[in-house]
Amino acid sequence: MTSRAKxxxxxxxxxxxxxxxxxxxxxxxxxxxxxxxxxxxxxxxVPLNEEGPAHRMTPEVNTADRxxxxxxxxxxxxxxxxxxxxxDRNVNKCxxxxxxxxxxxxxxxxxxxxxxxxxxxxxLATVSPRRYFCTQCHVPQHAVxxxxxxxxxxxxxxxxxxxxxxxx
Amino acid sequence: MMNSGTRFSPAAIKGxxxxxxxxxxxxxxRERALEYWNVLTTPSTAYxxxxxxxxxxxxxxxxxxxxxxxxxxxxTEKFCTSCxxxxxxxxxxxxxxxxxxxxxxxxxxxxxxxxxxxxxxxxARKMQAxxxxxxxxxxxxxxxxxxxxxxxxxxxxEWLRLKSNDSLECRNCHSAQSMDVARQSPRAASAxxxxxxxxxxxxxxxxxGIAHKLPDMASVPGWQ
Lengths: 168, 224
Prior knowledge:
CATH architecture of the domain at 60-145 and 154-168 in chain A: Orthogonal Bundle
Low-confidence stretches of chain A: 1-10
Low-confidence stretches of chain B: none
Number of helices of chain A: 5
Radius of gyration of chain A: 28 Å
Largest sheet of chain B: none
Shape of chain B: elongated
Largest sheet of chain A: none
Number of helices of chain B: 13
Shape of chain A: extended
Number of domains of chain B: 2
Radius of gyration of chain B: 28 Å
Distance between the termini of chain A: 70 Å
Largest interface: A-B, 21 and 18 residues
Order of helices and strands of chain A: HHHHH
CATH superfamily of the domain at 60-145 and 154-168 in chain A: Flavocytochrome C3, Chain A
CATH topology of the domain at 60-145 and 154-168 in chain A: Flavocytochrome C3, Chain A, domain 2
Strand content of chain A: under 5%
Oligomer: heterodimer
Distance between the termini of chain B: 72 Å
Helix content of chain B: 55-70%
Order of helices and strands of chain B: HHHHHHHHHHHHH
Structural class of chain A: mainly alpha
Number of strands of chain A: 0
Helix content of chain A: 25-40%
């Protein structure tokens, strides 16, 4: 009881001290005028606190050619358009081509067998519910220049640099 | 032979008619109906044949024009979406699809896909639609839940119709002859070349749910 009362008293004192200090400091002219607007390269010339015009829609990659994965565990990218594809509790439009039984007709790659595994590592007869919503991991791409550069190199390059020879 | 001869002799028939008239006399409206029938079956004595022909012709034009106008009035999107069942469910879903909103502004309205354009087929479909009037009166799908419960059945009717007429309503706009596969994505081009142009499949086989949301498809072949 006593310690809490002390804490409360201490808090009050600290707040009072802060108030006094704040009042004592004369306001700087730069703060009273409108501050310099903040910009970000990602957002373009429009200040961060304002909403600029929407970007134009960019063309989607729709070649259906498989993309190289950047690392072995990467979920493959979707190399085609999927807008308007219904993917909910009722329907999975992706599976109407990529399901095991549909690949003969569609010639699409079958979804990986790991998608049949439940969280205990048991293989089910069909797609596991936890792997049902494809676009959680697999995403289509837009043909745009990345707004932020990066220096990612894949593991083959890392190995080559480390050993001085090509892997495999 | 003898029996039927006497039964259907003119005297016997006259007697039966006379007795029928006596019975009918007890019911004045039947008497009146019989009089109208007599007027219809007796040659006209007041109007000339020419008048009757011209009047009949004009009445025919009025009737036919009125009938077609009424038919066309029920064949508009405005009419379809005047019921909340259509406006709040299927029409709302259509709005986000390419058949409502797209770069060139050409769009399909409800009857473009759901009512055959050919006259006899259209009349047949309109007669079927009397069942839909029944549904409207008795509120078969007057809530979202009722609609969702019935959606698979309703969709199956449309799939069956399009399957059996080789997707005629799709092909009223999308002709295989005018389809330039060189301008399609590789995926679309290969599917159309393998299945559409060879006649193995028709539009609705692959393009279910293109303008509206799909119900639970677990029971539909080819879907998961």
